[in-house]
Amino acid sequence: MSEASAGLKQDDFPALYRALSAESVGAQKNVLLAVKVGLGGALVAAALGLIKIEAGGVDLAALAAGIGFAFSLAATGWLLWQRPERDWYDARAGAESVKTLTWQFAVGGGEFPLAGQEDDVRTRFVARLRELLTDLGTVRTAVAAGDEQIPAGLLALRSAPIATRREAYRVGRIEDQQAWYAEKAAWNSRRRLRWAIGTVLIQILGLLAGLGRAFLGLDVDFLGLAAALVAAITAWTRTKDYAELSEAYAVTAQEIGLLAAQQLDSEEEVKWSEFVETAERAFSREHTLWRARKGHRPVG
Question: What is the four-CA torsion angle of 278, 280, 283, 289, rounded to 10 degrees?
Fold first, then answer.
């Protein structure tokens, strides 16, 4: 999710959020790199299988193809054994849960309305953060000082007048999230179309290669390479979930747009708190569904 927000800057979020977000980004990079190595090694091996380079009685192309398969095997084995995607999904879910709690606390809504003793509210906020961290026991996070969990900027926004908090929430949360989901929906849609076109072109080339070998005596066997390319593209697009994310993000962007249209201008803290609670449920719904599709239990 976008880190830029009016009213709350990156350093105004709890240290736990920043740690989980960094953990998620790092784990995602590791997963995608391993997938690229696994698919790339297999493709290199398939391509080298088309040629023969002998030196000293050794087929160097075949040797290089074997090395490609070795890299592919190592990457696939690491993904299966270590399951690094768990850290990616869990850390991202944890970060988003912390962000939801933080916005509620910052603007005095949802679980943390401006009612009662502020010391008790802060205690409940820290307790909720502790619960999230307990649920994410496998996630590695950096150690932070106590004042980094409730930064001064967070407290400053919470103590601001309701008009200031409403504006900060409108710009920094509602509009920010709508823009993020809309942009990501368009981005995933473009990528899905590009990979789909690439797949069709490769399949056409494979068909032509098959016809050429059958009727024209083409010596080079491109069929195996074409099949490997199609399989690799299919595996990559399934990893990235372009089509599914494009549709889901578009729906979420529309839902947030409807939410923005009904934002309250009321000066009543009770109504404002209820609105924030409703909004945060809408924000977290897509991420909860995403984790469910990945086979993980909800966090928070």
Answer: -90
Q: Cβ of 7: how many Cβ atoms within 10 Å? A: 23
pTM for the full model?
Answer: 0.83
Q: Is 226 helix (H, G, I), strand (E, B) or coil?
A: helix
Compute the distance between CA of residue 274 and CA of residue 288 in angstroms, rounded to an integer: 21
DSSP strands (E only) in the chain: 54-55, 58-59
Encode pLDDT of 20-41 as tens digits: 898 899 999 999 999 999 999 8
Strands (DSSP E) contained in 28-77 are 54-55, 58-59
Q: How many angstroms separate the Cα of 249 from the Cα of each of 17, 195, 283, 289?
A: 22, 19, 11, 11
pLDDT of residue 286: 65
Q: In the numeric block, which tokens belong to residue 241?
A: 């979930």
51-76 confidence digits (pLDDT tens): 788 887 888 888 898 998 999 999 99
Closest of 261, 294, 263, 295 to residue 276, by C-alpha = 263
Task: State residue 4's pLDDT score.
Answer: 37
Residue type (1 letter), 103: W
The angle formed by the CA atoms of residues 218, 223 and 228, to the nearest 5 degrees, is: 150
Give the C-alpha separation, 207 to 119, whole Å. Answer: 71
- Are 162 and 272 contacting, i.e. CB atoms less than 8 angstroms apart? yes
Q: What is the Cα 287 distance to its own chain's centre?
A: 9
Which tens digit of pLDDT belongs to each residue from 162-211? 999 999 999 999 999 899 999 999 999 999 999 999 989 988 888 887 88
Distance CA 179, CA 3 (A): 12
d(CA 86, CA 81): 12
3-state class (DSSP) for residue 272: helix
